[in-house]
Amino acid sequence: MLSYGRLLTKSSRTPVLTNATLNIAKRTKTLKYYPLLGQSYKNPKRIKEEAEQAALKAKMIESIKNGTYEEEKAEAERQSKFKVFLEEANKIYEKRNPVSMIKVLKDIRSELNNKQSNGLCFLNFNIATPINKINLKAQFNLAHDNGEVIKNKTLVLVSDLKEVSPTYAEDKESFHVAGVDVINQIMTGEFDVSGFERCYASASISSKLGSVAKLLGPLGLMPSAKRGTIGKDINEVIASNSSNLQRKIIIESEGPEFLKKVVQIGNVNSLSDVQILENVIAVRDGVNSTIEVHNTNNKKNQANLCSLTFECNKFEPAEIEYTRK
């Protein structure tokens, strides 16, 4: 049986053992992060921050030695600005408040006379371009005539100029008929193809097109048998593709910016609501498909559609539904 003195002695030792344990635990942490004696304990988060700063300093010193400091600094600033730009683009997309196209058209028709509107409608695209240079051509076909008169300049490539019917060959405003010599000029940069809307080729010259594929492809001008822009009879190719419903949007930028693109949809006085909707869907899906293909092939240089609005003459633009992929 323990005496009162022994109990007192045992209880008085307990705090000493507890403090010793705490001191050992603290010293273990100290030794873990700062093995040298005499250094005080620091939070692991602070240690990580100091290590990152030291790594940045070492990298800066190395870039100064290599003479690339200014370039790396400019690139870091560019990346930082692009990050802010992306945040702004995402905010625009997230804050959209789309309304039903059926409701929009109903409101337009009910107020058409009061607003003294001519009924002409447009689709407005707000596109956030990527950090690096981009040059896309979104080509699509309208479901119905939108009343817009466009003269499409078409490049026709053949091995023999006599293959082309006089109907097309003599229409200098719409067609430019050329042979192998022009393909060589496209390669050297002497012949500018950026002003053409379409390009067709006869099967007899198709073997020569590979040399200019990298120049025609990005502009959407590379003839293809799959798309029906190459054939044995060049006149049939022209006739089958010369539709007044074909349209395109050029998405071109040297860096991050908000591009505004407008496409005429039609007139509510000449088209029904269903026809207007079908044109809207055709245009929206055409642009969406082009951006989606580009983003799939360019993971680090992606474009994004921030907003899509439908506008009728003398009416306020209305945001319509668009799902970004």
From TrEMBL:
Domain of life: Eukaryota
One Gene Ontology term of the molecular function aspect: structural constituent of ribosome
Gene Ontology cellular component list: mitochondrial large ribosomal subunit
Regions annotated as coiled coil: none
SUPFAM superfamilies, per database record: Ribosomal protein L1
Name of the featured protein: 54S ribosomal protein L1, mitochondrial
Lineage summary: Eukaryota, Fungi, Dikarya, Ascomycota, Saccharomycotina
Keywords: Ribonucleoprotein, Ribosomal protein
Family the UniProt entry places it in: Belongs to the universal ribosomal protein uL1 family.
